[in-house]
Amino acid sequence: MGEGQRLTDTVEMRDGRSLAVKVSGDPEGSPVFLLHGTPGSRLGPHPRGQLLHRMGVELITFDRPGYGGSDPLPDRRVADVAEDVLAIADHLGIGRFAVVGRSGGGPHALACAALLPDRVSRAAVLVGLAPQDAEGLDWFDGMVESNVLHFTAAGAGLGPLAGRLMASADAFHADPTSLIDGLLANLTEDDLHVVADPGIRSMLIRSYQEALRTSVDGWIDDARAFCRPWGFDPATVRIPVLLWHGERDMFSPVAHARWLGARIPDATLVVKRDAAHLGALEVLPDVLGMLVADVPSH
C-alpha cells in the first residue's frame, strides 16, 4: 500500500492555511477522496497505486488541519472539512467525486456528503462515529477505555486532552512502535489478525509518524470536534451512503453505525459479524470499487 504516488502538492486556502495533498492511482480515473483516521495522515492506509490503476480510481488524500504538512485550524468543527475538500477539488480541476472516511474520517466524509451535494456523488463511512449528542444513543457503550478517556478529556477542555495526547505522542517519538503496541491489549482476535501483517504495521507507523511529525494539534482538534456539535445534521445527507462496520469494533462501537443508518435517508448498512475496527483496512479496496462503479472518469 501507499505506492504509485503521482502527485504531492500544497493547496493554499483563502484564509492563508496550507494543506498537504497526495494524489495516487489513475490520473484519468474516477476521483475519490479518502479521509484518514484519528490520528492519521495522507500517507495511509490505502491500496497500492497499481491496484488503483486497475480499478480506475484516482485517490486523493490530505492531512487534515494540524496533521503532518497541513497548517492547524484552531477550534475547527467537523463541518469545516467540506471547505477544505472543495478547495482541493477545485485546485485539481475535479468536478464530481466520491468520498470515503475511515474511523475518525467517517464524520468528515458525512460532512462532505451533507454540505457538498452538488459535488459529491457517493459516500462511504467505514467504522465511523455518530455525533456525541445523538438522541437515544449511549455514545460510550462498548467503547474501549482508552477512547473513553480521550473523549472524556476532550469534553473537559483543552488542557486535560492535550496532556494525554502529548504523552502518547512523546512515547511514539521515542519508540515508533508504541502506538501499535499500545493498541494490542485492546484489539480483538480479528484486529490482531489484521495488524499481524508486517506491511500493514509499517504502513500504520509511517502514517502516524507523518501525522505527529510537527505537533499533536490535528489529533487534539479531531477529538474536540467529535465531542462538539458537528455543524450539520447527518439526516440531511441525501446522496447514497454506505455504512460499513465490524460488529466486534470496540473503538467505534457498531451502535454508532446503526444509529446513522436509521437516520440517513439513502443509507446502506453493512455489519460484518467476524470483523472489528481494523477490518476496514481489508474492505477498503472493495468499497472503492463500489464508489466508482458506473461513475464516469474525468
Q: Can you put this structure into words, describing what you see?
A:
There is one protein chain. The protein is α/β, with parallel strands linked by helices and 298 residues long. It has one domain: Alpha/Beta hydrolase fold, catalytic domain (Rossmann fold). 41% of the residues lie in helices and 18% in strands. Helix 3 (105-115) links the parallel strand 5 and strand 6 (120-126). Helix 4 crosses helix 5 (158-174), helix 4 packs across helix 9 and helix 5 packs across helix 9 (217-226).
Write a compact overview of the structure shown:
This protein is α/β, with parallel strands linked by helices. The protein is built from 11 helices and 8 strands.
How are the secondary structure elements laid out?
Blueprint: E1 5-12, E2 18-25, E3 30-35, H1 49-55, E4 57-62, H2 81-92, E5 97-102, H3 105-115, E6 120-126, H4 145-156, H5 158-174, H6 178-184, H7 189-195, H8 198-211, H9 217-226, E7 241-246, H10 254-263, E8 267-272, H11 279-292
Parallel strand pairs: 3-4, 3-5, 5-6, 6-7, 7-8
Antiparallel strand pairs: 1-2, 2-4
Helix pairs in contact: 4-5, 4-9, 5-9
User: What proportion of the residues is helical, as a percent range?
Assistant: 40-55%
Q: Please tell me the CATH architecture by its name.
A: 3-Layer(aba) Sandwich
Name the CATH superfamily assignment. Answer: Alpha/Beta hydrolase fold, catalytic domain
Q: What is the name of the CATH topology?
A: Rossmann fold
SSE order in H/E notation? Answer: EEEHEHEHEHHHHHHEHEH
* CA(first)-CA(last) distance: 24 Å
* β-strand number: 8
Determine and state the CATH class: Alpha Beta
Strand order in space, largest sheet:
1-2-4-3-5-6-7-8
